[in-house]
Each structure stands twice: as C-alpha cells, then as structure tokens.
C-alpha cells in the first residue's frame, strides 16, 4: 500500500471513532495532553528556526485545536508557514502560506514557497513528536466518510478548492 493509501485509510479509521454529536473531537480526546504536545512543537520549531514561533491555542468550534505559525522572516523562502494540529490521531498539516496555496509540500518547494531545509526541519519536528503529516492534496478530496458532513444537504461555507462542499480538510482541520 502506498503512503497516500495508508493516510486515506487512517483518515477513514479516525472518522469512525465514537464521539459526541458535534464532530469536533472523538470520545476520550485529552485536551491538556494535546496542548502539552503543541507547546513542545512550538518550542521545537522556535529552537530549530531561531525565532519565536506563535501558537494559537484559542481555536474553538473546530476539528483542530492548535495552529503553530512561523513568521515570514524566519523562513528561507520568506513565506508564512503554518501547522494545524487536528483533534484526531495526532494529524498535522503544513501550509505554505495558506491551506489551499499548494497541493502538497513538494509543490510548495517547486513553487518556491518552502525551502527543502525548512520542510525537513518542520517534518522532523512533527515526526519526532509523534504527528502524522497529511498532504493537503488528500485533504482537499471530497469527504466520503460516515458522518453527517457527507450528506446531500450539507453545504459548508469555505474557500478555495473546497468551497461549498465538505472535504477531508473540513472533517479534520476546519471550523465546523
């Protein structure tokens, strides 16, 4: 099974976790543990990039709980880099600079929005802290999971490639 197939299988498995009616997090989600891990990521990125990484820990009504951001001046490409951390299964997505700017990190590198060195630093930090990095191209696929988001009548107010429909991004990395 290739990596994309493995990640999609993981998304489908996480989608089936029992949880409350609102889809923001599964049963047993441990916010203090997730915050502790996010703070370790912030510290690691701050050290690795030699600057203060910001951590938004005030996210509400969403399927992700934290967003780490590296300022433009800290990146080799001079582009804002962000990492969203899902409330499900230690999933992480890297955006350079916005969620729908590039299909994946390879594309961001080819387009000059992300240097190879910065990509390596971010991926190493995420991997070392136990996160699974999900390529945006997989998240932009239409959501075909088991929740009401897949219903015919659902229309999400979104932007970019997922405007007007639910995607895997909606399910695991967006405000709901």
Percent range of helical residues: 25-40%
Q: Outline the biggest β-sheet.
A: 5 strands, mixed
Poorly predicted ranges = 157-162
- Helix count equals 6
Spatial strand sequence of the major β-sheet: 1-2-3-4-5
How much of the sequence lies in strands comes to: 5-15%
User: How many individual β-strands?
Assistant: 5
What is the 3D form?
globular
Q: Which structural class is indicated by helix and strand composition?
A: alpha+beta
Radius of gyration: 16 Å
Oligomeric form of this entry? single chain
Structure commentary:
This protein has 176 residues and is an alpha+beta fold. The protein contains 6 helices and 5 strands. The chain has a 5-stranded mixed sheet, with helices on one face. The longest helix has 19 residues, at 31-49. It is globular. The N and C termini lie far apart (31 Å). Mean pLDDT is 89; it is low at 157-162.
Keywords, separated by commas or semicolons:
6 helices; alpha+beta; single chain; 176 residues
Write the layout of secondary structure elements.
Layout: H1 3-15, H2 31-49, E1 54-56, E2 64-70, E3 81-86, E4 91-95, H3 105-110, H4 116-128, E5 132-133, H5 136-139, H6 168-173
Helix pairs in contact: 2-4
Briefly characterize the structure.
With 176 residues, the protein is α+β, with helices and mostly antiparallel strands. It contains six helices and five strands.
């Amino acid at each position: 099974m290739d990596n994309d197939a493995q990640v999609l299988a993981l998304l489908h498995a996480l989608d089936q976790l029992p949880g409350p009616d609102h889809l923001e997090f599964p049963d047993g989600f441990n916010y203090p543990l997730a915050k502790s891990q996010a703070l370790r990521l912030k510290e690691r990125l701050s050290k690795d990039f030699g600057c203060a990484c910001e951590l938004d820990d005030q996210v509400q009504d969403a399927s992700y709980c934290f967003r780490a951001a590296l300022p433009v001046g800290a990146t080799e490409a001079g582009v804002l880099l962000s990492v969203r951390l899902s409330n499900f299964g230690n999933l992480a997505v890297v955006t350079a600079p916005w969620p729908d700017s590039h299909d994946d990190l390879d594309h961001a590198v080819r387009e000059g929005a992300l240097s190879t060195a910065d990509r390596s630093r971010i991926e190493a930090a995420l991997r070392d802290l136990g996160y699974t990095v999900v390529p945006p191209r997989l998240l932009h696929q239409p959501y075909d999971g088991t929740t009401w988001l897949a219903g015919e009548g659902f229309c999400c107010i979104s932007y970019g490639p997922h405007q007007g429909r639910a995607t895997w991004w909606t399910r695991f990395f967006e405000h709901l």
